Amino acid sequence: MEKLIINGGTPLQGSVTISGAKNSAVALVPAALLADGPVVIENLPHIQDVEIYHELLREMGADVLFEDDWMEVDGRPMKSMLMPNGRVKKLRASYYLWGALLAKFGEARVGLPGGCDLGPRPVDLHIKGFEALGAKVTNKNGVMTIQAPNGRLKGARIYLDLVSVGATINIMLAASKAEGVTIIENAAREPEIVDVATLLNNMGANIKGAGTDLIRIQGVDRLRGCRHTIIPDRIEAGTYMIAAAATNGSVTLENVIPKHLESVTAKLREIGVDVLEMDDCIQVNGNGQYRSIDVKTSPYPGFPTDLQQPITTLLTLASGSSIVTDNIYSARFRHVDELRRMGANLKIEGRSAIIEGGSQLNGAKVVASDLRAGAALVIAGLATNGVTEVEGLEHIDRGYENLVSKLQSLGANVRRVSLGEKERQQQ
Ligand SMILES: CC(=O)N[C@H]1[C@@H](OP(=O)(O)OP(=O)(O)OC[C@H]2O[C@@H](n3ccc(=O)[nH]c3=O)[C@H](O)[C@@H]2O)O[C@H](CO)[C@@H](O)[C@@H]1O
Ligand SMILES: C=C(OP(=O)(O)O)C(=O)O
């Protein structure tokens, strides 16, 4: 077990290359299983969620080669749709095995997923989608069994009551090889959904409208192997943008799609941060003179819930009162007590954090409760003049590739060390 030790107070300077998107990667890898040949996925981030997927695929009998930043997946040797438990609980996105195995074998038996604890994270819309496609779904002791009658799903019109990234992608996966046409209404529009549709279409699927709220999928009989490069991770990029601002630094982010970051750029500019957008890079120049603002998270293209926690840290440094409301996850506030431990003045009211900005943060020992809480605490540590110790790195490792070396390359004084005996006992 390890922790980060951050000697904060140094403005981040220089450039950082953004990795492939976590939330694309974890959908593209299971999608690749549907092909009748090898699929090569490039720009794949080395993060824990992808490593776990690598192990899951091998456990299921797929041929997988994971080298540098690419993976070759060949699902042909797989015989089984059984993946009841164990590793699937280590990540949220194992739910994509439902849609992928259902399309591949006409049946999936997979345990319920894990992922960040952000309050209730139901999967009713995924189930509603599979059932609309004709599947019979049962949940016995946490193992979902999803079966298509006679082994093949039938296209249907599905209205999602809530905009859900996971349900949209899962229905796309399942419907890609269904008989007939499937329409998803009120679909999520996140760039990661477009990325998955692009891979499936390159494999021979017929998906139109991804990136809008109406997706049309004409099922096909077979999908073939291909190569695909993952889009840049807009959440990792947003994290470095906020870190640059919080440390009054000057950072250029390479390998980004500025359009995917419009809501983040707009909010940073409103706070008073200088953000320059170029073709495939963004430069952020901090200045320490920040205004309070209100932020409300919403589905893409709105401000992402996955950056709600990091921007809260930045707003503790702005002058005046800010309100940050999470409209996606009502309980995504477990970073708040830890920020208070560091001297920030903020409280939770309902699904909002009410922030009295302008506090001088101090170094402290803090624990990351989830992935983006971890990012929020690392940013706080980088912005203080003291020493901050961050535990709970298993969460951060799920989604940030080479966090320590990337921060070090920007001049941060941060290192990763083993927990002492006493700290291990307290875990
Ligand atoms: C692996 C992955 O891509 N994770 C992302 C994905 O999670 P995930 O796909 O799990 O999130 P959803 O978009 O599905 O969730 C959106 C909202 O819908 C609710 N809901 C969702 C499904 C369902 O069946 N029933 C239901 O009520 C959720 O509780 C939440 O309030 O999108 C979230 C919202 O952008 C991000 O925070 C996560 O980083
Ligand atoms: C909530 C997140 O991830 P997951 O859905 O994989 O738990 C995230 O990436 O911030």
UniProtKB/TrEMBL annotation:
Phosphoenolpyruvate binds at K22, N23. Pathway: Cell wall biogenesis; peptidoglycan biosynthesis. Residues 7-407 form the Enolpyruvate transferase domain. It comes from the Bacteria. The keyword DNA repair does not apply. It is an enzyme of class 2 (transferase). Its EC number is 2.5.1.7. It holds the Pfam family EPSP_synthase. It is found in: Cytoplasm. GO terms for cellular component: cytoplasm. One of its GO terms (biological process) is regulation of cell shape. GO terms for molecular function: UDP-N-acetylglucosamine 1-carboxyvinyltransferase activity. Keywords: Cell cycle, Cell division, Cell shape, Cell wall biogenesis/degradation, Cytoplasm, Peptidoglycan synthesis, Pyruvate, Transferase. The keyword Protease does not apply. It catalyses: phosphoenolpyruvate + UDP-N-acetyl-alpha-D-glucosamine = UDP-N-acetyl-3-O-(1-carboxyvinyl)-alpha-D-glucosamine + phosphate. The modification 2-(S-cysteinyl)pyruvic acid O-phosphothioketal is found at C116. The active site is at C116 (proton donor). Cell wall formation. Adds enolpyruvyl to UDP-N-acetylglucosamine. Belongs to the EPSP synthase family. MurA subfamily. This is UDP-N-acetylglucosamine 1-carboxyvinyltransferase. The lineage of its organism: Bacteria, Bacillati, Bacillota, Bacilli, Bacillales.
